[in-house]
Amino acid sequence: MVAxxxxxxxxxxxxxxxxxxxxxxxxxxxxxxxxxxxADWQEGGIELNAPPHILAELFLGxxxxxxxxxxxxxxxxxxxxxxxxxxxxxxxxxxSGVLENKNANISFEGSNGx
Length: 114
Prior knowledge:
Layout: H1 2-14, H2 16-25, H3 27-43, H4 52-73, H5 82-96
Helix pairs in contact: 1-2, 1-4, 3-4, 4-5
């Protein structure tokens, strides 16, 4: 995955059309799906602390930043543990307001928790 990110970054610098197509086919679709997920939750009665498009950008950023950091640093000094991912995801969910909502059914406990 990291090697692919390096190739995409290198090619994107010199080829704007490639960069645009790659972004549209990957990040844009993921961002749209996340935005729809948050919008569906909101329509279902879950109160969010930010609009769905902002939450989608922030959540996707958790993962994109890690991939970019890995590509640039060769994973030197970066903690990619499951515990770190859980902590960051928990922080996001708390900040989004989802865990405060009685209509949300999200758990951080047990084997199926985040």
